[in-house]
Structures are given as C-alpha cells and as structure tokens.
From TrEMBL, chains A, B:
<dbReference type="InterPro" id="IPR050315">
    <property type="entry name" value="FAD-oxidoreductase_2"/>
</dbReference>
<protein>
    <submittedName>
        <fullName>Urocanate reductase</fullName>
        <ecNumber>1.3.99.33</ecNumber>
    </submittedName>
</protein>
<dbReference type="GO" id="GO:0016491">
    <property type="term" value="F:oxidoreductase activity"/>
</dbReference>
<comment type="similarity">
    <text>Belongs to the FAD-dependent oxidoreductase 2 family. FRD/SDH subfamily.</text>
</comment>
<dbReference type="InterPro" id="IPR010960">
    <property type="entry name" value="Flavocytochrome_c"/>
</dbReference>
<dbReference type="InterPro" id="IPR003953">
    <property type="entry name" value="FAD-dep_OxRdtase_2_FAD-bd"/>
</dbReference>
<keyword id="KW-0732">Signal</keyword>
<dbReference type="InterPro" id="IPR027477">
    <property type="entry name" value="Succ_DH/fumarate_Rdtase_cat_sf"/>
</dbReference>
<keyword id="KW-0285">Flavoprotein</keyword>
<dbReference type="Pfam" id="PF00890">
    <property type="entry name" value="FAD_binding_2"/>
</dbReference>
<dbReference type="InterPro" id="IPR036188">
    <property type="entry name" value="FAD/NAD-bd_sf"/>
</dbReference>
<keyword id="KW-0274">FAD</keyword>
<feature type="signal peptide">
    <location>
        <begin position="1"/>
        <end position="31"/>
    </location>
</feature>
<feature type="domain" description="FAD-dependent oxidoreductase 2 FAD-binding">
    <location>
        <begin position="46"/>
        <end position="504"/>
    </location>
</feature>
<dbReference type="InterPro" id="IPR006311">
    <property type="entry name" value="TAT_signal"/>
</dbReference>
<keyword id="KW-0560">Oxidoreductase</keyword>
<dbReference type="GO" id="GO:0010181">
    <property type="term" value="F:FMN binding"/>
</dbReference>
Length: 520, 520
C-alpha cells in the first residue's frame, strides 16, 4: 500500500468540507471511526439516539424530558423496529398489578427464572437493576401514554409466576405509538427516519464518543446480502452529540451474514420473527471503537412461531396465550407430546429441532380448545383462522386427518393429559401451569379444536455489547465506560444470558433505555 | 472534549519520532489503530507472527521456508504459550498412522464427530480444510523435527475412531521445541520474547494491516486484574510487515475480565489449564480493526482436570488415557456413575457441574486399574502419584474410605460395569470404548486401584475471529479479507463450534498456521 494513498481522515475531511459524496459513501468499508478534528459537524445536539424501538424511544423521552436537545435516528422508513411488531408483553416482578391481583412474586424468583433459562451466564447486576427499576419503566411508559390491560398478569413459559402485563392492543405498538407522540411533542426533540448511522465520531484523543456520521435519504434494501456493507444510498451528514450517544439499534436476527457466522444452520433465506432491518451494522461499529462483545453467539429462536406465516405474525400470541398453557404440542409422526409446552424458549426450540432434523417437514402441531385461550387473545383468534395460521376442527379425527397424525395415538395422548389435569397429578413433563385446571378437562373433548403448526424462528439475539448498570458501554481498552456512549436493549448482551424468557425483552429495553436517558 | 486535545495520531507520531515513551505507554487505552503515515517503522520484515504456539511457529516456519524475513513476537518470557504445556495429542483423520495400524476412519466421520460435540454450529468449510490438510500439517511438523509415537492412534472422548497421535514425550513441547529450533535456524527469522504486540498499524486508507506496534522488554504481570489494560512496562517499537501479520495469539481462558463477561461463573481467582498469559488483548484489538467476533461466548472447560494440582498438570493425561476409557467416574455421594466417561467435553463438564453445584466440594472421582491405562502414559503414572494428584489403593474399601464414597454402592457400580464389559452388553451410558474389553473385567478387582478427583477447568476458548479457508481474517466492514491479516489457532472461531473434541486443537493450530504461512 503506497504512503501516498489518501488517508481515511483526509478523505472524510475533504468529503465533508468539499461535499465529496461518492468518496464518502464508501466510508463504511474503512476501518477506524473518524475523530472530531477531521470532521465538520452539520448539526449539534445534546443527545443522539440510534433506533426507535422501546429502548431508543425510552432513552429519548427521558433525555428530552430533562430538557436536552435530542436527535433520534431511524434507518428504516417507519418508527419502532421490532418493538412495534412485538407481542406487547412486559414482565414486571413485584408489580403494582401483581399486588392488585393478589399474585405472590419476588425479585429473587425472577432472577432465578432468568438464570435458569439463561444457563447461568446472565449478568446478575443487570437483572438486579431490572428488579429495582422495571416498575419505574412501566410507570414511565404509562406517563408517555402506553395503555396496559387491567387484568391479572399473564403467565409466560419459564416464569415461576404470572408477571407479564400486556398492552391494550396486544402489540408493542401500544407502547411505541404513544411514546413516539410523547417524544415528538417535547421541545427540542427531532426524529429522522431513513437516516442510517454509519459510524461514531470520536474525540481527538480517540477515547470518547462525540457524535456520529450518518446518511439521510437512505433506503434499506432487503435484497442485498448485507445492506450494512453494500448499500450506498443517501447523503452523508455528521452530527455532534454534546452529552453523548445512546445506541439502541436492536439485534441482528435478520443479518444474513452475521447470524450465519454464529450459527451456520441459519441459512440466508431463513425466515425470522424480526423486521427486515434487524442487522448488526451498528453493533459491529461499536466493537470497532472498543466495546466488548458479550454472548454474541447466542441467537434465540422462538418455539411458538409458525411456518404458515411470514415473520412474527400472530402465532406467537395464539400459542403462548392460547394453546401452550393448557393445550399441548405433539409430534405429528406419533401423536405424542415431546416437550413441556411452558418450558423456556431454548428448551422448546431444541425439542422442535430434534423432530425437524429427523423429518424436515414434520412441523409439530399445537392443539387446544376455546377454554385454553386467555381472554386477552380472543380478538385475535379469528385473525389467526382467516390468515390460515390457525385451523379449527370439530373433531379430533378431522384434526388428525388434516395433519396426518395417528388419530388413536393422539386421542390417547389427550386422554392421559386430561386425566392428569382433572386429577391434579403431575403430567409427564411436569408442566406447572396445568395445576390451574381443577376437576375438569384441560382440553375439552366436546371441541371445537384449534391447531397451529410450529417452527422455531430466529427471534432475539442474546448477545451484544457490554454495559454497566448505568447503561454505559464498557471499553475493552480501559475496562471502564467509553465516555459519551450508552446503550440499551437488544444491542446489549448479558441480561438474558444464553436464552431469554418471554416478555423480558420489553422490560430490558424500557428499563435500560430509561436509565440511559436518565444518566446521559 | 476540547478540539485542542492532542489527537492519538499526533501523539503517536510525536512519540515515535520524539521518543515520548510515557505518552505512548498509554496508547492501548485509546481507540483506533494507528495508520502508516503517522508512524515511523523501527524495523521492516516481510511477515510478523504474533505468538509462538503451534499456530504461530507453524506459520513462521512455513513463511521462513519460503524465503521470507519473519519476525515472531512473544509477550511471555518463554516460547510456546499453552501449546508447550498441552498433552501433545493431534487428531488426524485418514492418517498414514491409521492406515498402518488398520484403523478405519473417514473425513465425513471426523466432521460428524466435531459437529456433534460442537452442537452443529461449527464452520464446516474449516473442518473440511482440516480433513484435506491435517496430514500435510503432521508431515510438516515431522519435517520440523517433531517426533510422534509410532503406536496405534489413541482413542479420545467424542471421537468415533482412534485417530489421535501423541508426541514422543506426551507433551506439546515435543512439537514446539523442534519447531522453535527449525525456525531459529532459518535465515532471516527472528524471535523476540517479552515483546508484546499492542496494536495493528493500518494502511493510510485504513483498510489493510501493514505492521504492528509493540513493546520490547515487557514483563507480563499475572497479579494485575487485566495485564492487557494495566501493564505499562516496556518500550514502544513499530514494526513493518510488508506481506502481512499472522495473529496466533491464542485464547483467553486466563483473561480474568473477558472470560467472566462471557461466563460470570468464572470467578477471577478460578484456576484454568492455561498458562497465565492467555488473555484476550490481541483478539480484542483485531475486533477493533473490523474482525468479526465469532462464537466468543463458548468457553470449553476440561472435564478431566483435577482440583489437586494447579493449571493443566498431569490429570488430563492420566484420566483420558488411563481412567476414562475403561475405568469409571463416580459421584462420591452415592458411588454411582453419572456420565459417559468418553462423551465430549461439554457433556462431561456439564455433568460434573451438576454435582458441584449441588455440593461444591463433592469432586467426582475417576477410578481405574493398571490395565485401564494406555501404554503411552505408564511413565507418567508415578509422577501423578508423587505429585499427589493420583492416589493408589490396594482395595476398593480403602479407596471408598479415602473419598467417603459408600463402599457397597461403589462395589455394586463396578460389579455391574464389569459384567457389561465382560458380556459385551451396552452399559448404562452406551460407552462405545467398553466394547474393546472382551470376556474379562474392565476394572480388575484384584487391584490395585488408581483414583483422581475431577473438576472442570477453563481450557479452550472456542470463539475468536472469523477466518476463511486460507486463514485470512474477514472484515465486518467489507465481508472480505482484511488485506495483510491472517490468523490461526485458538484466536480464531468456528472450527470447533460450541465445544471442541480433544486433540483437535493441535490439528487446528498446526493446519491453519501452516496455511497462513503458505498464503501470506
């Protein structure tokens, strides 16, 4: 390489000052983040937030509420990332809701549940922070306008108690929309969509984050193998962040390149529950300025997804709050149950994969009856049926015939299961939630019967960068916080360990987003 | 941060030109790697190799053999990293040795074994490369002077066939010492110990590696929480690498900070099988110039280590080639077996942890008799006994009394086990290797009996940076190789997936070290 080659610093300086857009669009192919003296800031803010999911909006709302001038960058055309298509459940241990509905819970129990699912590698100080602050985060979401169903908290798989609130509209949009409006109304708060952060801008000594480079009028292109590397759309801007940057750019379940490096079984064309923009670009840039990679190899697959719809869809709600708690999931080849339908996600996804590796098209089937559904999901049942994800049958024989399940074996499975439920005896998989049924059938044999085919889908990337309890990003070069850099939500690692429990993502995102906004 | 603050570039330039050593010693606290035009090279080489383990020496030997001027940097005072204290076993599928001793094997079987232990997330193209080139790597080691025992290959846990060669002295030093001498003799090859690489030097456009910054007269300090961050000893030097740098800096099982981020159960004072210098510093610097982190959360713990010695010690050899294949491991609380003693490492370490979590001091005990030992380890048996790691008992009663194992239960366990061995029936854990015993006792009841207490120790960090089959490091910024950067051995990720099989590390390191030296 010749010494005469133009340095990246020079290129960037020239580009910004001289509007050399073509040269700059290749900046993300280069190695080091630019430093302050080599850039010219187009605009100045107190705080810059990357991402508009739960974590990003909570950070922005909290920072703006404190009087800061906040810029929020969103690379996609719409607000809300995965949060806006999420199921809207939030686990809050020791919540005012639990007290109201007489549910016993404790912080210790919540942490023990998370550690069990997380295979013991969770960062306990982050879980303790959630125990301390989740109710505050819930209250803050309500202040921002979120509406939560005023019913007994829901009982999700892997939790030892019912502790999950669900939004009024059973979607994360029930939080994102009001929070978005809240942020928009605060003075000095600005959201820019189709604006992609490309890199951090560092202080002249290279130690602190003082801004970001970004492209406006950027168009995400899902057809590219790697949008982060290949997409050259948009015009370069440089934004100063006087107080700092909050990275809330989410996970990478749709990053065809990076998810496959962690798990080569995740083929490029494999569906996930995520929106198409869920890529690793910003996370990888954070590693390049010294953030520690933590737990990045753990990609959670949702065991409650269906091959009969794209993306997240409605199956996760209909199975988790309809078919799993009192209903069953069976192996179509033999009509037998093969897992505790309420186990943690990893245990269940692994159990489904055992079947799918033996017979790739033999999707297991979840089965329930009207009484197995929780009240909250009644409005979605019809949507599931018209969309073709859920099927309704008058008899077990019709159901068995449709999925080519041996009917007699299936009847035997349900008979045994119902007996256990009725008698209050422990079923073969020691499913705790079955104890809720007393003296009657769990699956009502009069029918009708509801069924959904199951397939695990990449859902949440457990790992990311290391933060402390103040949401500060820790540097591998100093073992101390990187001044000016905060992060929250799925882009961070540690909270969930190897595998996350359902509805703890919303808790994690809102809590640490709020904390980032408080501390920056 | 003021714009007047001196930039890192300026600091480095000043430092090198003006000998500002104090300022430069803090360079590793800063973010970005320096670029070529901002440094003054003290010396120029064709190739710079970081690390003197199997991978580093193989790369150096191969590159030097091609006529290149090679500089090898070793941060410790001695050559060989973990390799020189390793057990000296190398798995070679389809080896000339196997053919000589009439052992059936295949590349497919080797890859299937690795994928099974690796939980299916191994990068198969790297395993295929090993299948193609492991014999070449073995031959190259012999050319360099390594001596391997000319006996039937050993059968290690998780392998479906005996395919592991062992060095004459049953230690990795049997490869490292001759390879070190081979390298020293080649013209233009220079090894510098106590010389720590601090960072890469990048080309002026930031895309290629053109050298390294390092410190000579550096003294590793095991007492520091993080030597990589805190140690300020040594004097700065800058070395040019005209052809490129081979990163062969090993794993991070002794990095108190980084290993704990991946698994918080690994307390700072926890022993490992590794030498004290096995830290993540160089790996983390590679992430900072864009290398992809792969599988870094997977830390393998050796299920064959003993709490009765520090570090690697002799227990791994005495258990793997003495007590596990035909002997047994028992839970001291009930005298029962609790695992297939020949399962893969993760399965066995997890099984030991189940016991140790229930009763932290109840170390399981491995038990065998003289006939259970392989000929190769006879010379080490006495060393194990005099060192206090292995104990010898005349009777089962004496053994049981010593470890407080219920004697009757233990006798019952051995009786059942011996019956299975004698009758050729499958034992409770389906241990394949037991089929080697025909018509007699596996554990000879006449004694004497040998026993070793077991504890898992962090042994090998599975993850690292992403390489291709040419040992080129892949950039997250381009999805293409970083020009001038190669890597091999434990610093890379992918080959072993979630968990490595025994003796495949030597294969991985020698093969990809050789390939890096061939391609650079």
């Amino acid at each position: 390489m010749s010494k005469e080659t133009m340095s990246r610093r020079d290129a960037l300086k020239l580009g910004v000052v001289g509007a050399g857009a073509a040269m700059l669009s290749a900046a993300n192919a280069m190695a080091a983040a630019p430093i302050e003296k080599d850039v010219k800031f187009d605009e100045e803010y107190d705080v810059i937030v990357i991402g508009t999911g739960f974590a990003g909006l909570a950070a922005a709302a909290k920072a703006a509420e404190r009087g800061y001038k906040v810029l929020i960058l969103e690379k996609m055309g719409r607000i809300g990332g995965n949060s806006v298509i999420n199921g809207g459940g939030m686990a809050v241990p020791n919540s005012t809701w639990q007290k109201k509905y007489g549910i016993q819970d404790s912080g210790e129990l919540f942490i023990a549940d998370c550690l069990k699912a997380g295979l013991g590698i969770n960062h306990v100080e982050l879980l303790e922070t959630i125990v301390k602050r989740a109710q505050d985060a819930l209250d803050f979401s309500i202040k921002c306008g979120a509406k939560w169903q005023d019913v007994k908290p829901a009982w999700f798989g892997g939790h030892s108690a019912p502790r999950s609130l669900v939004t009024d509209n059973m979607s994360g949009s029930g939080v994102i929309k009001p929070m978005h409006e809240f942020v928009e109304k605060l003075p000095g708060c600005k959201i820019m969509t189709r604006t992609k952060m490309d890199d951090f801008v560092m202080s002249n000594d290279g130690t602190s984050v003082v801004g970001v480079t970004a492209r406006i009028n950027y168009r995400f292109d899902a057809k590219l193998l790697s949008d982060d590397v290949e997409n050259k759309t948009g015009e370069k801007k440089v934004y100063k962040a006087k107080k700092g940057v909050v990275l809330a750019s989410g996970g990478f379940s749709m990053d065809k390149v990076y998810r496959k490096l962690q798990d080569p079984r995740l083929a490029e064309d494999m569906d996930a529950t995520n929106h198409e923009g869920a890529t690793a670009g910003a996370l990888l840039k954070a590693f390049q300025i010294g953030a520690f990679p933590v737990h990045v190899s753990w990609i959670q697959q949702g065991p409650w997804a269906s091959p009969d719809e794209r993306g997240f869809g409605v199956a996760p709600l209909l199975t988790q709050q309809g078919l799993f708690k009192l209903g069953i999931a069976v192996d179509v080849r033999n009509g037998k149950r093969f897992m505790n339908e309420m186990a943690d996600r990893k245990t269940r996804a692994d159990a489904e994969y055992v079947i799918l590796r033996e017979a790739p098209k033999a999707y297991p089937v979840a089965i329930g009856t009207y009484n197995t559904f929780e009240e909250q999901v009644y409005p979605i049942m019809e949507k599931g049926i018209t969309g073709g994800v859920m099927k309704k049958f008058d008899t077990i024989d019709a159901l068995a015939a449709n999925y080519k399940i041996p009917a007699d074996a299936l009847k035997e499975t349900i008979k045994k299961y119902n007996e256990d439920a009725k008698n209050g005896t422990e079923d073969q998989f020691k499913k705790q939630s079955l104890k809720d049924v007393k003296g009657k059938e769990a699956i009502e044999m009069k029918g009708p019967f509801y069924a959904i085919r199951l397939v695990p889908k990449p859902h949440h990337t457990m790992g990311g960068l290391q933060i402390n309890t103040k949401a500060q990003v820790i540097s591998a070069n100093t073992n101390k916080p990187i001044p000016g850099l905060y992060a929250a939500g799925e882009v961070t690692g540690g909270t969930h360990g190897a595998s996350r429990l359902g509805t703890v993502a919303v808790t994690d995102c809102l809590t640490f987003g709020m904390i980032a906004g408080e501390n920056i």
